[in-house]
Design a protein that fits this description.
50% helix, 19% strand, single chain, four-stranded parallel sheet, alpha/beta
Length: 133
């Protein structure tokens, strides 16, 4: 299994996880990590490192999902990139988390990274695109 850490600004990570759990039930080995503007970056890094290390000690590879490329959550997370062990994807959305609930048990970390990135992109629609008007 692959451990998932959602890292975002403010409380988005917590809300995404809780919303996904309302739809599919409990999500073991999926952690939410929210960063506010008052947080000390070095303390955040240490806390995130502790979560990653706990997952790795439990035999998990880790996927980190952040809210947007270039933001503090993304910049902090990218410092933990470790090929074949820790992957990072920016642009998390609810369909990605729902799909990860099942797919993270079926694919390798590198396969899942490619798959879930594309899945997230495919789940963005405009009304005009969807309704064809």
């Amino acid at each position: 299994m692959i451990g998932i850490i959602i890292v975002t600004h403010h409380s988005l990570a917590k809300n995404l996880k809780e919303t996904a759990e309302q739809i599919v039930g409990p999500l073991p080995e999926i952690e939410s990590f929210s960063i506010s503007e008052q947080d000390d970056v070095e303390k955040v890094k240490k806390s995130l490192a502790a979560v990653i290390n706990t997952m790795k000690k439990n035999g998990l590879k880790v996927m980190i999902l952040t809210d947007m490329f270039g933001g503090t959550p993304s910049n902090i997370s990218f410092s933990f990139f470790e090929p074949e062990k820790v992957e990072i994807i920016s642009g998390v959305n609810l369909p990605m988390i729902l799909k990860l609930a099942t797919e993270r048990q079926k694919q390798s970390l590198s396969e899942l990274t490619v798959y879930i990135t594309e899945y997230g992109r495919k789940n963005i629609f405009s009304a005009i695109e969807f309704l064809g008007k």
